[in-house]
Task: inverse folding
């Protein structure tokens, strides 16, 4: 069976599965609720102890959902064991640190998902994949034939999801591509959002070395830091490569690059109290060649010589976050989605941004 046949076969399996159909209402909520149900079943305590070997099988446990905003919390003798389920949403490093530091009774925490997050997990946290979850569940011995059949189908659903995600990532290996003929099949079974999240994570991991490079260049610019952030909304993954300004730990503004689907965005944003309008921010960007002054909807549909589908100039959020963008892929044959090409572009534009930070400080953030 070739990759396309495997892809089609697993899509069809999920389309036939009532378990998968039930999961679609809220993917993470469904899985967390099902795991909690199994952990509370006497035969499936083995599943719980596989996740947390630190638990004492001879002691009572209490299992809570959404306890202090955490997905699943297992409590034993006052000690807390936490599960954060992240098949669709993004794990947030600061959130994990907050959960740990603000809950002194937390002994151990698990982040679950298809693939590990693109950052080192803080102390007390570990990653457990959905493939591992399926393995743990298959190791359980039970005489409850009905429940066994449900769990078996559930494990097959996890296997199919894992297979489809791995095939999709392999098909687009080395490219930040969110769509192919095969991958478009995921739309029908409502898994395209999960793939997009994983693809963005994969590229974020590829770009990790930019953090040390940019922070080194920022040493002479007081209050500026660099970070790579990920967001997910409306079924789209958004990667931001941000130069962010703080004064006394108070946010002032930012500039950098954002990639969402095929859009490569160059942006400048200011905090609300700066009271700068779109025209002012655009002017500073154009005067310093961060924004392209030559764009014209009728005569020059290009941003810095790259074709763009942008129709409004500039685009903005809330009148304070202003951007232009060019396309990383077009039906006419433009394709700059290869990781090495995009990474070089990101590095080039970030260095350009760093060269004008003093002007941005003076004209937008500190006056």
Result:
């Amino acid at each position: 069976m070739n990759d396309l046949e495997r892809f089609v076969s697993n899509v069809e399996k999920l389309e036939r599965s009532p378990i998968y159909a039930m999961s679609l209402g809220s993917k993470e909520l469904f899985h967390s609720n099902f795991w909690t149900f199994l952990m509370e079943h006497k035969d499936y305590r083995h599943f719980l102890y596989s996740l947390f070997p630190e638990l004492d099988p001879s002691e009572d446990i209490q299992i809570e959902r959404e306890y202090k905003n955490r997905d699943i919390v297992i409590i034993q003798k006052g000690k807390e064991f936490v599960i954060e389920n992240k098949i669709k949403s993004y794990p947030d490093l600061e959130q994990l640190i907050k959960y740990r530091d603000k809950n002194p009774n937390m002994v151990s925490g698990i982040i679950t998902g298809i693939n590990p997050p693109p950052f080192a997990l803080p102390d007390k946290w570990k990653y457990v994949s959905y493939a591992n979850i399926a393995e743990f569940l298959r190791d359980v011995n039970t005489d409850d034939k009905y429940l066994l059949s449900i769990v078996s189908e559930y494990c097959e659903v996890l296997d199919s999801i894992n297979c489809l995600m791995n095939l999709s990532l392999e098909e687009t290996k080395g490219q930040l591509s969110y769509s192919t003929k095969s991958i478009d099949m995921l739309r029908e079974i409502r898994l395209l959002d999960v793939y997009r999240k994983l693809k963005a994570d994969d590229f974020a991991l590829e770009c990790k070395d930019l953090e040390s490079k940019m922070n080194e260049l920022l040493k002479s610019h007081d209050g500026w830091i660099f970070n790579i952030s990920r967001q997910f909304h409306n079924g789209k993954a958004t990667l931001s490569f941000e130069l962010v300004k703080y004064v006394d730990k108070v946010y002032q503004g930012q500039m950098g690059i954002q990639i969402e689907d095929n859009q490569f965005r160059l942006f400048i944003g200011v905090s609300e109290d700066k009271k700068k309008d779109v025209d002012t921010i655009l002017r500073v960007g154009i005067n310093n060649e961060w924004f392209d002054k030559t764009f014209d909807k009728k005569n020059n549909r290009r941003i810095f010589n790259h074709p763009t589908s942008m129709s409004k100039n500039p685009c903005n959020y809330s009148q304070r976050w202003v951007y232009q963008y060019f396309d990383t892929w077009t039906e006419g044959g433009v394709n700059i989605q290869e990781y090495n090409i995009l990474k070089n572009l990101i590095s080039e534009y970030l260095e350009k941004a760093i060269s004008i930070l003093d002007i941005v400080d003076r004209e937008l953030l500190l006056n």
Q: What stands out?
A: The CA atoms of residues 86 and 113 lie 5 Å apart. The chain has a mean pLDDT of 93. The first helix runs from residue 3 to 16.
